[in-house]
Each structure stands twice: as C-alpha cells, then as structure tokens.
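Quick entry between incubations.
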Amino acid sequence: MALAAFVAGWLTGGGGIDLAWAPTWDLRLAFELDGLAALYGILAAGIGVLVFVYASAYVPRHLAHQGRPRREEARLHAAMVLFLISMLGLTTAQDLILLFVFWDLTAVASWLLIGFDRHDREARLSALMALMVTAVSAVLMLVGILMLRVEYATTQLPELFAVARQSTTVTVAVALIVVAALAKSAQVPFHFWLPRAMAAPTPVSAYLHSAAMVAAGVFLLSRIHPLIALDGALLDALVVVGFASMAVGGVLALAADGLKRLLAYSTISQYGYVVTMLGVGGTAGAAAACFYVLAHALAKSALFMTAGAVTEATGATALSGLGGLGRRMPLLAAASGAAVAAIAALPLTIGFFKDELFFKAALEHGSLTAALAVAGAALTFAYMARFWSGIFLGSPRDAPQPIERRLVWPVALLALAAVGGGIVVAPFAALAQDAAAVTSGAAVKLEAAYHLDARSENLMALAAYALGAFVLVVRGVLSKPLAIVEWVGTHFGPERAYSASLRGLNRLSNQLHDIEVRDLRTRVAAVIVPGAALVAVGVVLTPTEGAYRVGQIVAADTPLVAALAVCALAAVAVTAPRNHLALALMLSAVGFALATAYSLLGAPDVALVAVLIETIFALLFVGVFALLPADVLRREARLRPHRSRQVRDAGIAIVSGVVTTLVVWAAFSRPVPSAGMAERHLTLAEDAHGKDVVTVILADFRGLDTLVEITVVGVAMIGVTALLASRRRV
Amino acid sequence: MTSVLTQLVARSLLAPALVVAAGILVKGYSDVGDGFAAAIVAALGILLQFLAFGRAQVAAVLPIRRAPLVALCGLGLAVTVFAVPLAVGAAPLEHWPPAAQSPVHVGSLELITAVAFDVGVFLLVLGSAVAIIDALAATAEDEA
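Done. Structure below.
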C-alpha cells in the first residue's frame, strides 16, 4: 500500500504535508514526497514487500530450527513494520529534527530486528553494537543540527539551503551530521558493525543491509548534499572515506568465507562507491550515486535472499561447505546469477549503467579517481564472481533439501528487475534522475545507454572485468595473506577500539558507583556543609536592623503555636532514644507536627504531601527494621559512640540549629511582597477553571514537566520490577 | 504472623483509603490534592493489606497483577491528553475547555481535560507503586 502510494506520489509530482508540531520551538511536521524521497521510499517499500513474502516462508523454518514457538513471528513482523514506517518518515522528512527522530527510530527497530534471536548472546551483542555505533553517532548528528539551528534559527531544510553560507560553524555542524551518516552506512572506520549484524535472520539482512538501514546513511548525505557541497574539504573527505571503504570492504569480501559475511563486506564496499560519488559531487556525481543506490539495492537484497535459501536447502553457511548447486537449483542459480552480474556491472543488466555513470563521474573528477574507480570495480567483479561460482559451480555435494518456492521467487523477481533495467533503463533512470535533481539542487540529465564504441567508460569497464578476472585467478595464491588481513582487521581494527571503550565506560561507571556508595556520608556532607556555611555567611553579613523582629502572638495563633511546640519537643526528643524503632517514630512525629503547622498556615496542599511522605517514610523505616536481623539491631543500639564523637555531634547540632533559627527568623521578619509569578498563576488558575492553584500548575501550566516526571516514574517501575525479578531468577 | 487486630484495622481501612483517594482525585482541581496524592493514599491502603495479609491473599482479593498494565494505561491517557491537541492544530497539552468557555458540569463535578490528565498521573503512580510493592513483597517472601 505504501509502495503504491509512493509510486503514485512520484508519478504525480509529489506533494507535502506541513503541520505545526511544537510551535513554540518552531518545529513543524514537514513531510514532502520529492524525487529523493520517492527513490528511497519506493526501494524501502518495494523490497520490503518482497522481503515480507520471503520472511513468511523463512521465519517459520528459522523458528522451527531453534525450537521456538510460531507466535514469535509476530514480533519480527511488528519490528519490520516499525522499521518500514520510520524509513518512510525519514525519507520524506523536511525538518532536520524530525529527520533525527525517524533516524533514531530506524536504529531502535534495527536493534530489535538484529537481536531477534534473543537467546543467542552473539546476536544480542551484535544488535547492541549496531545500536551503539549508529545511535551514538546520531547524537553527534543532533549536535550538528542544533549548531545549524543556533546559526540560522531554523531546522527546515529548504530554508537552510536558501540561507546557509560557508563558514567554520556550518562546516563543523555538517561534518558531525556526515559522521552519523557514514556510521549508518557502515563506512570505514565504522564498518565493523555490519558483518556482526549478520547475526540477524536472513530476511532482516536482506532488508536492512541492502535497501534500508544502510541506505539511510547515503540517503542523509544526499538529502543534505547542498550543505556538504558548501565546503570542498568535506567533499574530498567523502571521496577518501568512500575509496577506503571500497578497498577495505572489497579485500575483506575476497577473504570472507561465510556467505552473509561476504555480502556484508560487499555492502560496505558498494556503499563506498556511493559515498565516493557523493563526494565527487556535481550533477554527474549525484546522478551516479542515486542510480547506484537503486541498482545495488535490487541486486543485493536478491543475493541476501539467495544466501538464506541456499543455507536453508543445504544447511551450509559458508562457501567452503558449498558447491555444484547449479544443477540442483537452476532457477535460484539463474536468478542470483543475474543479480551477481548486476553488481559486477556486466552488460544487459541494470548494473552496467551504474558503473557507466560511476566511471563518467570519476573521469570528470580526475585521473586518479578514475584509476581507483577501475580498481574498485575490479574487486567487485572478483568477489561477486567468487560468491556465485562458489555456490553454484564446482563438484556437487549432498543433494539439497527441497525448500518453499516463496524462498526463490522473490529472488527471481528482483533478478528480473535487474535484467529488465539493463534492457529498458528509462523508468529506473527517471527515478534516479529526479532523486539526483534534489541531491544536487539543480536539474540533472541522466543519460544511461549502451554505446558500442571505444569511449573511455567502456574501456574502463573492460579493464575492470579483465583486472577482476586476474584477481580471481591469483586469489588462490593470495588466500593466506587475505585471511591474515581479515584476522588483523577484526582483532586490531576499530572494533577493538569499540569494545575497549565499552569496557572502559563500564569500569568508570563501577568506580563512580563505588565512590558514591562507600563514602556516602562524606559525599552528603560535602554538599551540605559548604551550602550551610554560605547561608551562615549570608546571615552574618546581613544588616541586623529590622531583621529580627518579635511579633505578637494573638489568641487565633494558639493551634499553630501548639503544633510548633510539639514539633520542637519531638525534635529534642529525637536525640534521646537508642532503640531504632523509637528513633524512627520520633522522626515521623516531627514530620507530622510540621505538617499540622503547614495546614494551619494555609498551605493545605503542602500539608497533604507532607503527611503522605511522612507516612511512607515511617512505613519504610518499619519495613527495613523488620527485614534486618533483630540481634544486629539490638547490638547496634547498645553501642556507645566514642566520647569525642559525642562532643562533635552535639557541636554540629547546636551550630546548625542556631544558624537555621536565625535564617528562618530573619526571613519571617521581612515578608517578601508576593512575587509576580505567584500572582499571575492565581489569576490564570481562574481561566483554567481551577480553584486549587497547585493542581492547576501541575496539570496545566507545567503539564509537560509532569508528563516527563510520570514517565520517569513508569521507567523506574519497570527498572525496579525487572531488577528484582532477575535477582529472583538467579 | 500479624495479629488479628492488625488484620482487622487493615481490612477496615482499605475502603476508606480508596474512597478518599477517589475524592482527592476528582475534586483535585477545585480542592486540596491531585492525582499524585490520591495515588499515594490508595497505594498506602494497599500496602497495608500486603503487610497484614501477605502477598498471596492480597492477590486473591485485589487485581495487583494488573498493576503494570494500570500504570501503562495511565501513561497512555496522559500522553493522549498531551497529543490530541496536536491533531486539532493546538499546542500540545492545551486543555479544553478554553479560558472563555465554562466547563460542562455533572453534578458538582467539572469536566476538564486537565482532570483527565490528572487521572493519568493517578493511574501511573498507583500502578507503579503497587507493582513495586508487589515485586518487593515477592523478593521478601523468597528470602524468608
């Protein structure tokens, strides 16, 4: 449905929604279905449909393998729908804050999806890693967005494009957003989360790691491209990161043995292409990038599904356990062959044009870029050929199990699209052209066609094939060094920095906790003593004239005086008992007497809360004493503190008592004329139909605060019950 | 365990506690108290039952297992009151009726969306408190 809406929306020229969200912050729910949104939205929704079909056959098998109930399937579907919705929101959002919200929603949904096998520790850790890398970098993005907002007082993208000029602030802000985008697209040096994320069930990988999650990063780069293009250094940085990712991903894909791992490395390298082209910029770069994303997503999701189908049929998850499936599964072999050809950029597939546009953009940028582009394409050719031949060619192994046709025909459909795009490229080119126009901020003419002449793009393609074939041939010699490279990469690469920083943070948190708990008394004193000292200094320095007036006590004050006298008596009495329970009851007597005084002073709301708090604390004390062993309490009660400590405690008590009395006396002697805000609240409470101004403040004037506070209460409930429940299970 | 007297006091205090809580809640907008205070009164009444009768008996009488659900409903209600004005183009948490319009009365009760918000607060705090009491009671029983 969403797919139909997006296609229809694109064909009719798009449209937009613009709603006020939080007007006081000038935030608007601004969505617009422009060319870029159409491209990524159609990809996310279209591939999403096929993935759902595929998952309906795959997930029951997956659950059955692990002996889990069928109903867990609903959890996966819910998370996928959440992902799809946030992805569609992301692609159409026109406000950076809104974009950030959807960005984080995709991260949360992907965390749920990658960690779907929650009994598996590896899957949980991988999900957490994906979440950490993408969500922590998203915080950088938020910082960047807020910097832009401070600079230009808007987060609306069209307005930003109109007013933004090159400056250091803008460059830093945009760079922060770019970092988040690169982390999401698994570019070097944040690439390590993607191979780990292959712990997800295969349909999830086919979706998130081809058309959606990873694509969100380059989508963001495209979306804010006019801002990036303000500074040439940022563009150059993109080119460097893109080529680095192409190289790292390509080499590791040549080395990898696991099917999905190989595909993950290939995704890193393929998005490296896109990042490079966005760095090249201009109309040629934008066109090439948008077309590339389209072609790659079609083919790559087909390949992920192929990997899943092959694993389901044979049980093998790595190339070393596979071979010769071509005769047994001809349809799958042909379909995935087409997809492989598309990524390897062979003619008669949509992939040929992606490389043609890529080479064209690279040539415009410079000869070094062009040479590196050919090298990258050669690597792609080599590892793609290795992937396909490793599964389908060679000597046959055991006969595969029969699998559902729904595991095969989504692959076939995608392959059909890839081949169809190689013959009739016009609709795909139109889609990419509209997206590129948004990216580059200018009209783009995207020309994709076969030219049977010796132009440089064709020569570069031929060179890439030849070089790729050569790499494939000599790979046998290279396998040892490649394996070493992969080992070094996983053990000493950025992943190590990630786990080291996680461990460090955990240690830091433990240390802080230890300090807090061990020296609680000192910590509390460290806050209270300087504060009290400051107040005392204030009392000493205040002119005494009129500060300490003695008022009159009239007959009407009798109850108040009585309440305060009880309070004072109880406060003195607290020092006497040695029994814990008596001590606690004395303390609550002080509190209740004070609450009575509040109610007499005309503060019934405060009195009510005070009574409730006192009741809670009295019950808490009693409860804690009931849980503590009786003999411990008795022993503690008999202990007499050291003589010097008794003197010290008495001294502290007297000094603080005197100072507090002086402060309160001085405050009461000079009643402050009632503050403007309180008056205002009283008048406004009438308007809000309330007579109890405290409640009106809580529910109306400061209702947002209340909402946040009760959310905290709810979270605390979840935390407490979860902690207690986990302790009971152990 | 606890004496008959404690149990008698606890049992006879439950209904008054709940009634007082309801009273504080609905009259909160024109009189002392609010959703939070009402929830604490109700939760204290229920806590008394736990102390006097133990977890199993309370669970047989009161639907304490549903406490987390109650809390979530409360949060949902508060968020609804927060979000609905957005849909009609007003600021979030803008209450109805507006200042110029007088509210609808049912008896002496005034229907204001702010009261609905307060009911959300009540449900959330009550649900959370009872859920935490229940979890603590379960832990204490296990250790005993």
